[in-house]
Amino acid sequence: MKRENLSSLQTLSILGGAAVMLSLAMGMRQSWGLFQPHMIRDIGITAADFSLAIAIQNMVWGLTQPFVGAMADRHGARPVGIAGVLVYGLGIIGSIYATSALMFTLCAGLCIGFALSCTASNIAMNVTARTVSAARRSIAMGSVSALGSLGLTLASPMAQTLITTSGWKVALFGFLALAVVMLPAAFFAGGADKIDREAITGVPQSVGEAVREALAHPGYMVLATAFFVCGLQLVFITTHLPTYLDLCGMDPTVGSTALALVGLFNVIGSYLFGWLGGIYSKRFLLGGIYVLRSVFIAAYFMVPATPTSTLVFAAAMGTLWLGVVPLVSGLVVHLFGLRYMATLSGIAFFSHQVGSFIGGRAAA
What we know:
The chain has 364 residues and is mainly alpha-helical. It is built from 16 helices and no strands.
């Protein structure tokens, strides 16, 4: 089937499935910090153990992303996404019944790290880019990324409410229910696999040739290096901000509300930068996002934390959160085309996850 022959309903089901899959995968992943104090107390692990598990999650995510991207390029997004959802559920179940740091690391670190490779932004952006025309691609990726941001506004308050009223294990069962919802989403997103690949491949090229071309391109290497800073900034906040606020003596709901605000304002930022990326230089916009994030982080931690400053900080960071995703994906497509987009985006994403590993381990 050619892309232009897709009906409006088929297009919406593919993009909607990608958005829901991305939304729930990232919403749960970014809410793990809320469980840290309770798991430390009940399982008997340390803050360093928890941080190591999350850091390993990010490294596994990064290490497996190029290979998962290559599988999606070769076999399609549907089998990759469904497998990822099943492994995500396995990781959640294992975390519920974890009795040691090792078991928690295997489940929350290895399983969920691999699952995120199959269900999060790289696969969602690959599906989106294949489904829409070049003229609509940037704003479509921004829209899917924006809708994908809503998961944090659902997962974080839900988790905190269940933790407060019923305990952290019940909250993780709530996450398991969200993982079940991801299954049909992954199936619908896989509808992009039906699109005729020959119409979008461009110049015939092997995956090895594509990777060598990318690694020799200075723009691609700069992009991958900047992605390192992105991962360092974001994972430090999602992993350690709730604990930092707890140490400051604030009510736990401030942390969950802050994460929810990140998700809410991320909707605005993702759509905004997706739209801007179709008009202005994506490189310039990416540089601006990284600089502004650094300014807001420095300003927040230079003054005593208050509920008001925390929520303002969360709103500012949320606006700058996943806006990088449509810009980076758009740059990869612009430089190298669609054929190996998931593979090349996955390699660049590895740099992001090295930064995430360091951000997850920082202050442990």
